[in-house]
Amino acid sequence: EADSEGHRHWVRWQDPFPKPCYLFALVAAKLDVLRDTYQTASGRTVQLAIYVEPGKLDQCPHAMAALKKSMAWDERTFGLECDLDHYMIVAVGDFNMGAMENKGLNIFNTKYVLARADVATDTDFENIDRVVGHEYFHNWTGNRVTCRDWFQLSLKEGLTVFRDQEFGADVHNRAVARIREVRGLRGAQFPEDAGPMAHPVRPAAYQEINNFYTATAYEKGAEVVRMIRTLIGKEAFRRGMDLYFERHDGQAVRCEDFVAAMADASGRDFTQFMAWYNQAGTPHVAAQSRHDAAAGQYHLTLTQSCAPSPGQAEKQPYHIPVAVGLVGPDGKDLPLRLAGSNAAPATTLVLSLTQPTQEFVFDAITVAPTPSLLRNFSAPVVLDFD
């Protein structure tokens, strides 16, 4: 539009969707646009648009497909539907971060949007899936429920990294995705936890806010969320997510609020588990075992420790989920049941290591097994097995 004298141009954009103030974005540029639509589970139509610098539209279709896959996955997995009438992505080469989840107007570096088979690798295409998914998933975990303060950064980032990991595992190959995540964690986050910059998933103080955006807050934070799901199971975790949004949609909350929803949905006590949010460092778990052939029992002793880190000379014991299997001489998993338990046997059991040292006894183990410990990397720890 122009004013009465034709000297000024102006545009009015009506945005009725509440958002935290840090998520406001505005873009003014000469850009090309790729448009599409998505029909939600309830039948609403969302207008989709990806804006890029002129001449690059032919590299946008994969990102658009990734956005639509993300929207469908969030509906199927968590029952979360897009609340917007318009969902837009702007990708420019000079953006100084990978991407940002500004409400309804995501800002991306072109690295995570532009791809074409003759100029991009398979990893590039996978990364676009994950990052487009990550920023879309923030619409609920970060935008509609946000952080009370920046010390709670992992509340939105750890949870959303976990969500984009699960999306990537479902879209691609789950085993390969998990191996890549664990290699990245051990290669980047473990050294961070062992060095002078070690800090908890939820830091207590900072001197420079950019130092907050670390592998500890993001990747270790995702592992903390994954451990909660490992402890309570997928169904209880989904109930916990539902309860979290029911209680806190439209609010700015703390990590405790997320954990409380999981505790209330599952009936589990997560008081000790909060050490994962408040203590720095990588725990070490030492394992020793023996097979009692006469009694038909297998004894597994686990001992946990965590070295001092800056500002934390002594650590309290963690609540560590240790997923265990026992493999027989024929290479097959043995059915497992703890001594004194009436539960049905299972080939993988999740043990809760909560004390400095604990012994777990398995009944009906008539052959000497090979232990398979920390399956699926059930906790971000260093395992020493004797």
For this structure, what is the CATH class of the largest domain? Answer: Mainly Alpha
Within CATH, the superfamily of the largest domain carries the name Neutral Protease Domain 2
Mind describing the biggest β-sheet?
Answer: 5 strands, mixed
Strand content: 15-25%
The whole-angstrom Rg is 24 Å
Query: Under the CATH scheme, which architecture of the largest domain would be assigned?
Result: Orthogonal Bundle
User: What percentage of residues falls in helices of 4 or more residues?
Assistant: 25-40%
CATH level-3 fold name of the largest domain: Neutral Protease, domain 2
User: What form results from the Cα inertia axes?
Assistant: elongated
The helix count comes to: 8
Number of DSSP strand runs? 14
How far from one another are the termini? Answer: 75 Å
Characterization of this structure:
It is a single chain. The chain is of the alpha/beta class and 386 residues long. It folds into three domains: 21-119, 2-Layer Sandwich (Zincin-like); 146-278, Neutral Protease, domain 2 (Orthogonal Bundle); 284-385, Immunoglobulin-like, CATH 2.60.40. It has eight helices and 14 strands. Strands 1-2-3-5-4 form a five-stranded mixed beta sheet, with helices on one face. A four-stranded mixed beta sheet has the order 12-9-8-14, with no helix packed on it. A hairpin with a 5-residue loop joins strand 1 (32-39) and strand 2 (45-52). Helix 1 crosses helix 2 (122-137) and helix 2 (122-137) crosses helix 3. The mean pLDDT is 96.
